[in-house]
Design a protein that fits this description.
Blueprint (H helix, E strand, L loop, with lengths): L9 E12 L3 H9 L6 E13 L4 E5 L6 H9 L6 E6 L3 E4 L12 H11 L4 H15 L14 H13 L5 E5 L7 H17 L3 E5 L3 H7 L2 E6 L2 E7 H43 L3 E5 L24 H12 L3 E6 L4 H12 L4 E6 L20 H6 L9 E5 L2 E2 L2 H12 L5 E2 L2 E10 L10 E9 L2 E14 L2 E6 L2 E5 L4 E9 L3 H14 L12 H10 L3 E8 L4 E2 L5 H14 L9
Parallel strand pairs: 3-7, 3-8, 5-6, 6-7, 10-11, 10-13, 11-12, 16-22
Antiparallel strand pairs: 1-2, 1-4, 8-9, 13-21, 14-23, 15-16, 16-21, 17-18, 17-21, 18-19, 19-20
Helix pairs in contact: 3-4, 4-5, 9-12
């Protein structure tokens, strides 16, 4: 029964305990010599006030980190308050860290005298209590063995026995009632009951066990973040503590669920990015080897080790980072193509084959008497089902240089080839007109018009030639000169996977509008892209490149192209053998 008339036996008056959180040993040392260092602090106890009267049994309840153990340490003198005042009137016996403070080389019996002396007992008092302590500890002959030979359980038994049998006026218990095996735990609980009932000991108990708190205490102080939130009946204090626990568990569960969802979302985003950012190069090769009326096996080698132009494009594409190549060929070319090009390419990169077929037409349309292929639009359409991410397209027998492959790959890899609000975002390699001309005759080029780096129109311009060192078109006596750096399309595009869907929509429209008897009309990529831009269904970034384009428009171009590749090899742009 509490004796309030006698005044408090423990009193906290606006007590705060602030710990300094040093960033390391250097800052800790510097703080000894330098004032006003910017050192982080943490309030373990904040402006706490309460009183405990003789004979009271009070439980401090609260979550881990609430400040309960700091309160006990300040009462026992292990640490001191930063602010405020603590008054303790009575002998304190603390069951805190029961195994701490023993001298390992001394016996258990000798440690009884050592611990008793630190608690303020005289040798005579200790000698009188010794049998009771030894009997309670119940460690047998080990009592006369060095403590260093004890198990942690034996040390805890001896510690509890000493601190609970020195007739304290104030007993401080911090989760120490769970010492040892089941029978010894019950023995400890009974000892505490005895001290409370017979010796009128004041008990200050810290525990996370609600039943233990209710069993020993009538009063509870609920502490939260170093502050007293409630001081009253043990039932209400425990109820508030359990409510806080449930709230924390709920928050923790929600946080775990959110974390799991976030991880799942990130994983899904990574998977989607990996899938969507896998870049494919479509090489239109249905007409390869037929430019001068020869077959694929008779194609002219241009490199020092027998390389074809397509070998250099494949090399540059792999170097730029493309993940897959789709060859668009004719079915009748399959065997020869694989033998000459495909099989060795498959050793370097993932390869797939699409077959451009004159009769691969939408329902309701036939080729009739037509023998000419339907053009580059149908060639790309043949890739449906093989391309599921951003892709680039090139001609098989054109050389584009390294820069254009890198620029288009990076455009695709960075996620720029997308569809937003129904608008497809495309790109094209913009070659300088002067770098695409032939010394052996006229050429046809898609001359580009652009505004702020975006393509606005492509004008198919015929009969462009080198005239007086400049690009020009002659029309009778009239001559139109072009700026040498005018961007032109060489059929090298970067496209989203959805572009194939646009081709599927526009191909029937193209077929339906072919004039009767026209057996040469072609479904061409530049025209399709131009139409999409005019309709507001696409925009196209022009990626300027200064690399020189090579192609064998005329037989007379062959020596020039071979010489160009020999120079590239000599300059270290390519190794001697890339096959």
């Amino acid at each position: 029964m509490a004796e309030k008339a006698m005044g408090p036996i423990i009193e906290f008056k606006n007590v705060s305990k602030r710990y300094k959180l040093y960033s390391g040993n250097r800052q800790r040392l510097a703080s000894v010599f330098v004032k006003n260092l910017n050192i982080k602090t943490k309030d373990a106890v904040n402006d706490m006030s309460f009183s405990v009267y003789p004979g009271e049994s009070v439980a401090l309840v609260g979550s881990n980190g609430a400040g309960k153990s700091t309160v006990l340490k300040m009462i026992t003198g292990v640490c001191f308050p930063t602010e405020g005042e603590i008054i303790v009137n009575g002998r304190v016996s603390a069951l805190l860290e029961l195994t701490a403070g023993f001298e390992g080389e001394m016996t258990g019996r000798e440690n009884i005298y050592l611990r008793g002396t630190t608690l303020g007992l005289s040798p005579e008092e200790i000698k009188e209590l010794e049998p009771e302590i030894v009997d309670f500890a119940d460690i047998g002959e080990y009592i006369d063995q060095p403590v260093r030979s004890y198990s942690s359980g034996m040390k805890a038994r001896l510690g509890f026995a000493i601190n609970s049998n020195v007739h304290p006026e104030i007993l401080i218990v911090d989760e120490a009632l769970s010492v040892g095996d089941k029978s010894f735990k019950e023995k400890c609980l009974e000892k505490v009951r005895q001290l409370i009932a017979e010796d009128n000991v004041t008990l200050l108990l810290v525990t996370h066990n609600a039943n233990t708190a209710k069993q020993f205490c009538e009063r509870g102080i609920f502490i939260q973040k170093g502050t007293v939130k409630y001081d009253g009946t043990i039932e209400e204090a425990v109820a508030r503590y359990e409510k806080e626990l449930k709230k924390k568990k709920k928050k923790k569960k929600e946080a775990k669920a959110q974390e799991a969802a976030a991880i799942a979302n990130v994983a899904e985003a990574i998977r989607n990015k990996e899938n969507s950012m896998k870049t494919t190069l479509v090489i239109m090769a249905a007409g390869i080897g037929s430019r001068f009326g020869t077959g694929i096996k008779q194609m002219e080698a241009v490199g020092p080790s027998g390389e074809l132009i397509i070998d250099y494009s494949i090399h540059d594409a792999i170097e730029a980072g493309f993940d897959k190549i789709v060859f668009v060929i004719r079915k009748d070319l399959d065997k020869d193509f694989r033998e000459v090009i495909g099989d060795r390419t498959e050793q370097k990169i993932e390869v797939a084959y699409a077959y451009q077929d004159l009769n691969d037409l939408p329902e309701g349309f036939t080729a009739g008497e037509r023998t000419k292929p339907w053009g580059t639009g149908q060639a790309v359409l043949a890739c449906r089902g093989l391309v599921d991410g951003p892709f680039a397209i090139i001609n098989a027998d054109d050389y584009y240089g390294k820069e254009a492959f890198v620029q288009i790959h990076d455009f695709l890899q960075d996620g720029n080839a997308t569809v937003e609000d129904g608008v497809q975002h495309l790109c094209m390699a913009g070659f300088q007109l002067k770098n695409t001309l032939s010394d052996n005759g006229t050429v046809t080029r898609g001359v580009c018009r652009e505004e702020d780096g975006l393509l606005t129109d492509i004008v198919e311009t015929h009969n462009i030639e080198k005239l007086d060192g400049r690009a020009a078109v002659r029309n009778g006596e009239d001559i139109t000169y072009y700026d040498d750096e005018t961007p032109v399309s060489m059929n090298m595009w970067g496209l989203p996977a959805e572009f194939i869907g646009a081709l599927e929509e526009k191909f029937p429209e193209f077929l339906k509008n072919i004039p009767e008897g026209d057996l040469k009309a072609e479904f061409l990529i530049p025209v399709i892209i131009g139409d999409l831009i005019k309709e507001g269904a696409a925009d196209c970034v022009v990626l300027p490149t200064t690399d020189k384009w090579f192609g064998m428009t005329y037989k007379e171009d062959i020596p020039t192209v071979k010489g160009a590749f020999a120079e590239l090899v000599a300059n270290g742009v390519y190794p001697e053998n890339i096959k």
